[in-house]
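A reminder before we start the practical. When you read a complex entry, don't treat the lines as separate problems. The point of joint prediction is that each chain is placed relative to the others, so the output describes one connected object in space. Small molecules and nucleic acid strands, if listed, are placed in the same frame. In the example below there are two entries. Take a minute to note the order of the lines before looking further.
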Amino acid sequence: MLFFSYFKELVGKEVTVELKNDLAIRGILHSVDQYLNIKLENTRVVDQDKYPHMLSVRNCFIRGSVVRYVQLPPDGVDIDILHDATRREARGG
Amino acid sequence: MVLGLLPFTDRVGDGPLLDAAAGEELMAVHRGVAVALGARNLEPPGTLFITTKRVIWLDDADAARGYAVDFLSISLHAVSRDPEAYPKPCIYTQIETEVVEDEDSEDSDSECGDDFELSKVTEMRLVPSDPSQLDALFNMFCQCAELNPDPNSESEEENSWVHGDEEMAEGSDSEWQLTDNLGNPIGYTNGDHDLARSVLELQINDQRFEDAEAVEGETQADHHH
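Here is the predicted structure of the whole assembly.
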């Protein structure tokens, strides 16, 4: 549950979601669920030359299972909290 | 289950024959929805049926023409209103296909050739005649996608790891899953051996964690009673 909990903290921030088909989409994280399905708002495709037809979509829902990476905003990463959370998670509680 | 778009002709009256045995139920019906597959032209308006399992589009005039795609195959769906992206406001979907081929990377351009094959279509646009339906459509797609998490592609052992925690994410083959498993209290009931193994997997598969060793050290320390 660590990633679910952590991503929930990032709601409202800008993230870049890279799919397993190499498409990368940047947008404001609207919500995330326990399957790590991700909803983005005000999205745009990072490589617009390659995917011109996806120039801009307003809302976007991405299946958790097709996500390869989520690039986080630097200011959305609190290293100390993340360290604590991973240790708690490793202890099982 | 077969990934990708499939032809669909099983009709009952004006609607699709659903897989009642699998618990499939109709969630929404939208009339006057045109469909465009890949880079092909828009097809005449038909009726869109959204079920708990899949999206089915039926041509109103030609009963032999219809398409179905499982929510499990829909990687992404979005509301597209930018006329530069597509001339008409639409629901844009990306579809995961069964065959992984090099030509897939050429994107949808390869689909406009003569060798058009439904199973290779990676994009589908649904264009409602009434654009005000877009948000309702989008939300319904979200709702139904969440009803269809991926079946766990990991081994049986992995299945048992996530079993028992309803909140646990299922069916991911990503490194994240290993991290989730590590946090599953069930791991502890299996004794230190399994725990140590999963920690090892974490180190191997998730090198992004700088403090993986520290985590391991602490965890093991906790368990030497």
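Discuss with your neighbour: The longest strand of chain A covers residues 24-32. What might explain this?
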